[in-house]
Amino acid sequence: MAGQRVEVDGGIMEGGGQILRVSTALSCLLGLPLRVQKIRAGRSTPGLRPQHLSGLEMIRDLCDGRLEGAEIGSTEIIFTPEKIRGGFHTADTKTAGSVCLLMQVSMPCVLFAASPSELRLKGGTNAEMAPQIDYTVKVFKPIVEKFGFKFNCDIKMRGYYPKGGGEVIVQMSPVKQLNPINLTDRGSVTKIYGRAFVAGVLPLKVAKDMVAAAVRSIRKEIRDLHVNIQPVQEPKDQAFGNGNGIIIIAETSTGCLIAGSSLGKRGVNADKVGIDAAEMLLANLRHGGAVDEYLQDQLIIFMALANGTSRIKTGPITLHTQTAIHFAEQLTKAKFTVKKSEDGEDASKDTYIIECQGVGMTNPYL
């Protein structure tokens, strides 16, 4: 079923692991052989890192494919996919590489598998430069399920930088097709809630300080809503290593979920972590989008595959989103348009509508 090989330049635009994730997932889905060159060309440590390698190997295993050039530091891979099969698969970054990014690359593929899948993903659950698992479960999951599928995500163990050691099990059944989505009506914020955690040797006071600072920050702009952020000490048997962080979610009258989050680092005081998350949430609320800046790029691949026209209203278009659109168009022939929203008060804000005519991918095995 292999068609003409697709050539991807891994050094343009976002120029990182994301190009690899989008292009290999789509190559697997479409049965297109793929060569990616200049992988992470502009990064301080160019080429494949352990987390990219484990993602590639999982995709290869999901579709019994062939992978050439896949070793740490390699800047070029050739991937030849075969048919996608469900079943049990494991991916282990062996580092604090993000399990959420592993989920991002594998999820579109297993939706179009021949049978249900169970993915055991190991690495960091709350890691830098990636969505935190709490974001994936509380924001990404309910929104992405609007495309017409359900998945289950069981957090067995949380893991943090630098050790990793986290483990998440994802179960999902295949679908025949994906429905398009329309997320253009933000509505008004009806509640704000969240979770501030400490793990390992860090005292609960750190979580309480993150909460207090975040609440103070939010109060400056939003006075009429109760802000309910729970401080949590992760149980010893459910967290590996030390870490702290916070996620704050605003829910709206139309069911939109907008978030801000932040992770603690050595030498950064708890107040700053709380304030950073609050400011990220407030910035995402100001621009009037129906999805936040982190959901934008994660929805692109699903929009491209859906059967019909999807629309999402967002704030400023991120480089990750531009990159996802570029490669989704290159590989699937889906057509995206990005327009400034002139709707009501949006005109004065930095608000955009991303529209996509999806390709209506059909699962050949169902």
TrEMBL record:
Residues 13-338 form the RNA 3'-terminal phosphate cyclase domain. Its EC number is 6.5.1.4. Transmembrane segments: none annotated. Residues 184-285 form the RNA 3'-terminal phosphate cyclase insert domain. It is an enzyme of class 6 (ligase). Keywords: Ligase, Nucleotide-binding. It catalyses: a 3'-end 3'-phospho-ribonucleotide-RNA + ATP = a 3'-end 2',3'-cyclophospho-ribonucleotide-RNA + AMP + diphosphate. Catalyzes the conversion of 3'-phosphate to a 2',3'-cyclic phosphodiester at the end of RNA. The mechanism of action of the enzyme occurs in 3 steps: (A) adenylation of the enzyme by ATP; (B) transfer of adenylate to an RNA-N3'P to produce RNA-N3'PP5'A; (C) and attack of the adjacent 2'-hydroxyl on the 3'-phosphorus in the diester linkage to produce the cyclic end product. Likely functions in some aspects of cellular RNA processing. Function plays an important role in regulating axon regeneration by inhibiting central nervous system (CNS) axon regeneration following optic nerve injury. This is RNA 3'-terminal phosphate cyclase. The lineage of its organism: Eukaryota, Metazoa, Chordata, Craniata, Vertebrata. The gene is RTCA.
